[in-house]
Amino acid sequence: MSLEALRERMPECAKDIKLNLGSLMNETVLSDQQKWGALRACAYAAGAPQMIADIEAETEARLSPEAVRAVGAAASLMAMNNVYYRALHFMENGEYKTLRAGLRMNGLAAPGVEKADFELWCFAVSAIGGCGACLDSHEQELRKHGVSALQIQAALRIAAVVNGAAAALRVAGI
User: Is 134 a catalytic residue?
Assistant: First the structure.
């Protein structure tokens, strides 16, 4: 299976998603590692099993074992952090924001790949997770590492399209 197979699975109502998936395959603003890592991390975040399998198959030969591990770390750490920090944002009682989170996040400090790539994947996953605090934090880190607004926007587009593809698969009962 592959990204092309995923595109073919899109129901008729998701014609735009299918076209956007094709455009993502030709994305040139990001390095290949950034692009394929973001696709894979976002697939994990969106959680559609068939899409995960298709994107894993597409990215297996495109990502190093270190990048595959880092993508998994980005997806799982952000799944945790997006819930925690999004909840803090929504809670009226500000006392919780003053408390130490007490969550282990060592993978953020030493991801095993270029820090900018890892931050980009965390940013994309946080878009799917809907955490404004995480988006702001990772966007600031990306800018410190010289990542351009166009590159950050490309990661955001990947997150949006992958999330849309997951919804389309649910519509199709896949």
Answer: yes
Mean pLDDT confidence for 93-103: 93
- Calculate the CA 131 to chain-centre distance: 12
Spatial separation of the C-alpha atoms in residues 161 and 15, rounded to whole Å: 12
Q: Where are the alpha helices (DSSP H) in 10-148?
A: 15-25, 32-46, 49-59, 65-90, 95-98, 106-109, 115-129, 132-144
Angle at 122 between CA 160 and CA 105, to 5 degrees: 150
Which DSSP category does 28 fall into?
Answer: -
CATH of the domain at 109: 1.20.1290.10
Q: Which of 13, 42, 122, 131 is catalytic?
A: 131
Q: How many domains does the chain have?
A: 1
pLDDT of residue 174: 85
Active site residue 13: no
Does the pTM exceed 0.85?
Answer: yes
Q: Is the pLDDT of residue 32 over 90?
A: yes
Structural domain boundaries, residue 104: 3-171
